Amino acid sequence: MIHFIDIPKTNVRKVMEPELMWNFFHAEKLPTVPESERFSSVRMADFTGAHTWLQEGHELSLRKLVEGSGYQEELKYDFNVKGELRHLDTNESFVFNYYKNTHEKNHERYQVLGHMITQYVYELLERVCALQKVYIPSDATEDEPKSFFFMSEKALTSSSSIIVLLQDRGVFRAGQWGQKTIISDGLYHGTQIPFIKMALQRHGGVIVLNPNDNLVDLKTEREKLSFSTREESLTSLHSCQWIPRQCSSSPEEHTTYVWDHFISKSAAKNVAFIAHGYGGLVFTDLLVQRKREVMNKVFSVAFIDSMHNIQHQARNDPQIQWWIQKHCREWVSNNKPLGKAVGSLIKVNCPTVSAGTEKYTLAPSYCLHSIFKYLNSTLKAKTTTAFTRSPIATRSSESKKAGN
């Protein structure tokens, strides 16, 4: 079981600035340490001691969700104090082959665990990160298949900047960079919570998209995120009749709807995207579809191992190519130190740097601080440019106006 509280804002600077925490969080500070050992160092730093989203307060437990599923014995797991998924009796990591010579049953068990983790992360987003769940479409009736996303309380009304998180494509949902990563490497590497917490601290607003929540089970007319009985869980995995969710039938449609109805109408003048994998392609699609709006409102984009293709998606639009080159940077899985330039023979668009790891699944967590350092610098450069270009009223200028 993990215990959470938020450290008061007055203490955030004291927590984040000491050199010890800086070394733990920045992989490039540890060039001589093997990658596997660095994983352990990062996890220890973020799941023990003073951390902004891990201490006493909220008692959330994956085990409580599992106990209501009928899989109490087969899934005897919970997250420990380091955010690692461990067996309650043996303290071992997750074992897929629970049943001997029965791949189908093992796969069903794995699917149930995935559903439990999805619901658990949703609880973390609402109770630990204090995000609000927003259902879409906004005008849908109770009977219509709705989707949802998460955002901070004042994301739309505050003039501070907004960070939008756009995940890769897969079975995982909002708040996750990867479900397999959560199971094998823990909450720090697999969830978006470290990004959410840093976005709230440094930028004020955050929106967590849910681009993979595209289908609903027509037969039961409800989400399959928890199972009340073992029989129900097994039945649901085999007999679902899926139909597309309204306004969220694909990652592209989901993102465009949230942009049109929420992000574009927000009070924030500065919006940034952090897009992983297929999420980069989805953002580029949004840029092409809403070119003028996106170019005016988005000040920067951080791609992580992005699947976008400017030449193909932008159809040789010189404005989009110029904007990508000027306002975007991509972190790619690579054996070079974090932040070092990486050449690409495949894509020629924006500056590309190393994520500090060769493992695709760990790239987001490894380049966390490097990304926010980049976003902070680009936002500062934009605001500085806007200030220098704005007219400054002086006595002489006021006199000229009066004379005219």
Descriptive notes:
This protein is an alpha/beta fold. It folds into two domains: 54-128, no CATH class; 132-222 and 241-387, Rossmann fold, CATH 3.40.50. It is 42% helix and 14% strand. The protein has 17 helices and 14 strands. It has helices spanning 9-16, 19-25, 35-47, 62-67, 103-128, 179-185, 187-190, 193-202, 230-238, 251-263, 278-289, 291-297, 310-313, 318-327, 363-366, 368-389, 395-403, and strands at residues 2-4, 58-60, 77-79, 85-87, 132-136, 147-151, 162-166, 205-208, 215-217, 242-244, 271-276, 298-304, 328-332, 352-354. The strands form four sheets. Strands 5-6-8-7-11-12-13-14 form an eight-stranded mixed β-sheet, sandwiched between helices. Strand 3 (77-79) and strand 4 form a beta hairpin. Helix 10 crosses helix 11 and helix 11 (278-289) packs across helix 12. The longest helix has 26 residues, at 103-128. It is globular, with a radius of gyration of 23 Å. The N and C termini lie far apart (73 Å). Residues 3-52, 54-58, 222-229, 231-236 and 392-401 have low confidence and may be disordered. InterPro entries: Arb2 (IPR048263), Arb2_dom (IPR053858). This is Arb2 domain-containing protein. It comes from Bambusicola thoracicus (Chinese bamboo-partridge). One of its GO terms (cellular component) is nucleus. Residues 73-338 form the Arb2 domain.
